[in-house]
Design goal:
alpha/beta, Purple Acid Phosphatase, chain A, domain 2, six-stranded mixed sheet, about 25% helix, about 20% strand
Length: about 300
């Protein structure tokens, strides 16, 4: 009942948009598709957020499009409140045409504070709301889903730390290593989604102290040594699209997404600061095609498109 009510309420908060639909590069040959967004920052008392989030999700499903996976890279809410999760999942439920929904958690979802008691309360709430609204059964803030050509691996902080630093413990790193080894053994692409970027991997934005991860070196070592193709997706920085948004090292492609819920993302190239920007992933037999798109405006950011060989 609450799921249905959340969808109904979304119709009173956002009245629709007419963004142009996108098309896949080879509709006949595609094996699976995904759209990844970050930093939606749903805030119940902000009608501006409803417009931004609504126009973004409307654009994801424009023209009848329905990616196999719709994933979020954290800071889905502003304060981790139950009503914010209600609105967040209500908007998803309104537009979703059958996508499997994956939600990574960010510092705002855990209260944006260093208080450990707040983390315990809000992380439990984030798990509960994800399970309820998405019909899932996760019991930790980190989990994975296997989709055939790719496994999506979602990481998250296990504590609240000062200055929005993320904490990834040795236990989570070992779990990650096991997931990556499974990808390598089966020839799957590993799509690892984590809210904070890895140190030094996406230009100057990833050197800032408030973007750091405790356990960063161990996580990066796990990615670099796993033997699989890895796409590491982060958000958090609110930096727009630029030449530093995508970097590659060895078997790993590091992607830092702008805030899809904010206008005015920092240090962006022209057209890269607006709300609504995310990425489309198209998996084919031999390649992964990645397109960055402003879903709210219905425009691709073609300068950043890339092809990754999978064989």
């Amino acid at each position: 009942m609450l799921r249905t009510l959340a969808v109904i309420v979304s119709f009173f908060l956002f009245f629709g948009s007419g963004a142009a639909p996108y098309s896949y590069r080879d509709p006949a040959g595609i094996r699976m598709s995904a759209v990844v967004l970050s930093d939606m920052h749903m805030e119940t008392n902000s009608f501006s957020r409803f417009e931004k989030i609504g126009s973004t999700l409307s654009g994801v499903y424009s023209g009848g499009n329905s990616p196999d996976v719709l994933a979020f890279a954290g800071d889905n809410t502003m304060n981790g409140q139950s009503l914010e999760w209600f609105d967040f999942y209500g908007f998803i439920g309104r537009f979703n045409k059958g996508s499997d929904v994956l939600v990574a958690m960010g510092n705002h979802d855990f209260g944006n504070t260093a208080d450990e008691g707040t983390y315990e309360k809000l992380s439990a709430r984030a798990i509960e709301k994800y399970n309820y609204y998405c019909g899932a059964d996760i019991d930790k803030v980190y989990y994975s889903r296997d989709y055939g050509p790719a496994k999506f691996i979602l990481l998250a902080s296990e504590h609240n730390a000062e200055n929005t630093v993320e904490v990834i413990t040795d236990n989570q790193v070992q779990w990650l290593r096991n997931e990556l080894a499974d990808c390598a053994s089966q020839g799957k692409t590993a799509v690892v989604i984590n809210h904070n970027p890895l140190y030094g991997r996406n230009g100057d934005r990833s050197y800032y102290s408030f973007n750091q991860i405790e356990g960063c070196e161990a996580v990066d070592n796990a990615l670099q040594s796993c033997g699989a193709n890895v796409i590491f997706v982060s958000g958090h920085t609110h930096f727009g699209m630029s030449s530093s948004s995508v970097t590659q090292s060895g078997n790993v492609t590091y992607i830092n997404l702008p805030s899809a819920g904010n206008d005015g993302n920092y240090r962006a190239d022209e057209g890269g600061a607006d709300h609504g920007i995310g990425m489309i992933m198209e998996f084919y037999d031999e390649t992964l095609e990645i397109t960055f798109r402003n879903f709210a405006l219905g425009k691709n950011l073609d300068a950043y498109s890339l092809t990754i060989d999978l064989v």
